Amino acid sequence: MNETRHRVLDALSDGPVSGPALAEDLGISRSAVWKHVEALREAGFTIASDDAGYSLAEVPEFGGLAVEYGLDAPFDIEYHDSIPSTNARARDLAAEGASDVVVLANEQTGGRGRLDRDWVSPSGGIWLSILFRPDVPMAHAPVYTLAAAVAATRAAREAGVEATIKWPNDVLVSVTSAGTSSAGDDDVLVGGEERKLVGILTEMEGEADRVSWVVVGIGVNANVDPDSLPSEANPTSLQAVRGEAVDRRLFTQRLVETFDTLRQTPESVLDEWREYATTLGKRVRVETPKGVVEGEAVDVEFPGRLVVETDDGRQTVSAGDCEHLRPV
Ligand code: BT5
Q1: What's the pTM value of the predicted model, to 2 decimals?
Q2: φ and ψ at 206, to 5 degrees?
């Protein structure tokens, strides 16, 4: 965001402050002050004005300026009411040379999941993509997917939702009411009891020894009705679990701030991930590009490989779709 607008906003939140005083403080004209105030009102900020001057009365529920206001992380927020895909937009920004930008949307009309799957993104969600340029080899990039899962899980827990992580990239909520699993064999999936709250799609470009850019796309079902999401995915939302809407502005700030901390210390990500993981200790079936791996998930290794104890010994898996199985 425009640096002067940030300073206007900060001054208003300490207000009341008169137009002329603000103009002098910031070294801009009175009409420039007025334009900034009008732009902030346009963005949804409630700014009171009386004889004592201007003061900030209310911050909007969501939006770029709203999330930047009070954000303790060095990212610009580019906000869209509606956009096809924040990941696609972040990739375009990467091609233009940008970095440390969060593309944020209220609605996506062409949201993408992994392997060309669709990600349904109605109005009321938190759909965002974090673009940054870490100085690491390409092989380390998967750790940022795990970092995003940790950040989303922590933000959900702070919002009162007991989220857990399913390797590698899903944030789930376990529901205690009995699922509706219907199959009769031992490997019945327990998916009916775990509902998907967040999905993560990481994309990157670079040379083997060095990443050029990473885009971590995070889709949070925030204030959306699960009935508007694909039922076969067993979706849920923060609003559905809490029974009331979540403060999307605060949630987004916590998510981005935690991610910012974790990206600076990639080696600390795994411990936090283990703490939140529901996959470890479970029997899993992972469909990898090289075939199916089945057994007990015993650990995760840097930068994000799952260690599975199979009948034929230990195997590590870097990527794939993971299903939790009932214990045998
Ligand atoms: C993912 O893919 O879980 C990654 C989703 C990433 C979405 C974010 S939103 C911001 C950014 N911009 C984008 O365009 N994408 C990212 P995957 O594991 O492949 O899961 C996709 C599957 O989840 C679909 O095939 C559906 O079955 C299901 N699904 C679709 N929309 C869903 C939703 N809102 N909630 C839960 N499940 C959903």
Answers
A1: 0.92
A2: 160, -170
